[in-house]
């Protein structure tokens, strides 16, 4: 048995993927054998949240403290150096497989009351591959408790072309972004990307630009999708976010100095920005019995 539990392999046409029992994480995704995301060994602790699902909040909560429904809550701090609660509560938990076919796998997890999060959610994720369209991921949450629950979700794949990001062109179809402070907490209101280093509305070389910022004001195509795309002139990989995700986090991993330094771009679809439990920005108040769903995907090209 590996550290990440059972491994669920799926395939369709040129695409293959591996999803893990631990966290229902996307451990690997490839097209014609070419990795589209940074992967890791099944018996290795997940590095830098690679491929994990971020529920019931994405990114950070300032000092792990927030108020909701007239009550104040304190979450365990799991980003010690920055004193934040980060990336939710389910990314290391075991998920149960609900369905597994050649091209798709669905997993579920019941999140019961937790220190600092006294709410109950039934969670479902489906990963499905299509020979032409690549990967589609559907994340859902149903409030199975008796009280309104604060909710948000995200995901944390690292797109890769197998070469340094400095050499790649980046496209982010977003018009605004949030600045962050030294503890990676957003400050102020969203700003126009025009005239800033964060403007990638037209593809351009990333170079040495460091990014660890949430984007919003997403510009969507005719299918309602916003895009993050890496290309090098010969090959490409892209993440799309459906309309249930009004935010995209882009992360260039500049503080990471291992052998994959700046070869993987964090491309994170999110229902809300970092620290939304504190600010309330795009925070979902999930009523008892209510369900919410967000869809995103990754494709080659």
Automatic annotation (TrEMBL):
<dbReference type="GO" id="GO:0004034">
    <property type="term" value="F:aldose 1-epimerase activity"/>
</dbReference>
<dbReference type="GO" id="GO:0030246">
    <property type="term" value="F:carbohydrate binding"/>
</dbReference>
<dbReference type="InterPro" id="IPR014718">
    <property type="entry name" value="GH-type_carb-bd"/>
</dbReference>
<dbReference type="Pfam" id="PF01263">
    <property type="entry name" value="Aldose_epim"/>
</dbReference>
<dbReference type="GO" id="GO:0033499">
    <property type="term" value="P:galactose catabolic process via UDP-galactose, Leloir pathway"/>
</dbReference>
<dbReference type="InterPro" id="IPR011013">
    <property type="entry name" value="Gal_mutarotase_sf_dom"/>
</dbReference>
<dbReference type="GO" id="GO:0006006">
    <property type="term" value="P:glucose metabolic process"/>
</dbReference>
<protein>
    <submittedName>
        <fullName>Galactose mutarotase</fullName>
    </submittedName>
</protein>
<dbReference type="InterPro" id="IPR037480">
    <property type="entry name" value="YihR-like"/>
</dbReference>
<dbReference type="InterPro" id="IPR008183">
    <property type="entry name" value="Aldose_1/G6P_1-epimerase"/>
</dbReference>
